[in-house]
Amino acid sequence: MATVTPSLVPLLFFARISGFAVAALVIFWAFSFKSSFLPHSSPQEDQGLIYSALHPLFMVIGFILISGEAILIHRWLPGSRSLKKSVHLCLQGVALASGIVGIWTKFQGKKGMVANFYSLHSWMGLICILLFGAQWLMGFLSFWHRGEVRSVRLRVLPWHIFLGLYTYGLAVATAETGLLEKLTFLQTKRNVSKHCTESMLVNSLGLGLALVSGIVILAAVSPKYQALQSKLIYSSDGKKCMSS
After folding, report:
1. Where are the domains of the chain?
2. CA 50: distance to chain centroid?
3. Which single residue of 41, 52, 71, 146 has CA 20 to 30 Å from 235?
4. Contact 67, 92 (CB under 8 A)
5. Who's near 90: CB < 8 A, 6+ residues apart?
């Protein structure tokens, strides 16, 4: 059985540590600064507060962190390739469901969907979810449908990897625009100080997301195993073919 390259061990470790730190920050923000998600909350508005607080929780923890873990599955999970693909697909499915629910919670306010769909953040979020859904479906059809020809899967694989990393990066960029949008609103509309605890927390959350994404993408493009997974085999007529 192939083992994880030693150079990847620190990356995987820091990916987990930074991921837990980001999760802790967004949970602390959602539950400790409730007025930031729904000003002047009253008992009748508790449901709206829940929806507003659930949006960053689902999008950051459920969508970004879980999809990042799904990318890392191929780098650390022991076992067969079939097992890795199964866990990868399941985690990506959970991330997709979390993203859909996260967007749904944002549209549960009194103003409805159209009023919330006006900013760069909202446009990027919708594009990201659509790309992620297409990517998940492409992965399912290309790598799990038993009738697929191996040569077709090999041709699709580079595009699957590219689109996966691109969508993951787009999700992080979308979250960063959301944090900037939220912090700008708090500082201009509600006179939240630029040096207060909440401002520092949101900025730290943004830096944490940038750190996590960098580590995940670096681990994804680094050499996977000590042993080569793909070997070049030369046939008797001198032609080169690849087997994995």
Report:
1. 8-243
2. 22
3. 146
4. yes
5. none
Name the pTM for this structure.
Answer: 0.82
Nearest to 1 by CA among 81, 91, 66: 81
Of 175, 161, 150, 110, nearest in space to 243 by CA: 150
Q: CB-based contacts of 67: which residues, under 8 Å, 6+ apart?
A: 91, 92, 95, 132, 168, 171
Closest C-alpha to 5, from 179, 224, 155: 224
Q: What residues contact residue 66 under an 8 Å CB cut-off, 6+ apart?
A: 91, 94, 95, 98
Contacts of 142 (CB under 8 A, 6+ apart): 148, 152, 153, 156, 157, 160
Q: How would residue 33 be classed by pLDDT, with cut points 50, 70 and 90?
A: confident
Integer Cα distance of 142 and 163 in angstroms:
14
Between 79 and 133, residue with greater pLDDT: 133
Given a cut of 80, whether residue 156 has pLDDT beyond it is no
Query: What kind of architecture, by CATH, is found in domain 8-243?
Result: Up-down Bundle (1.20)
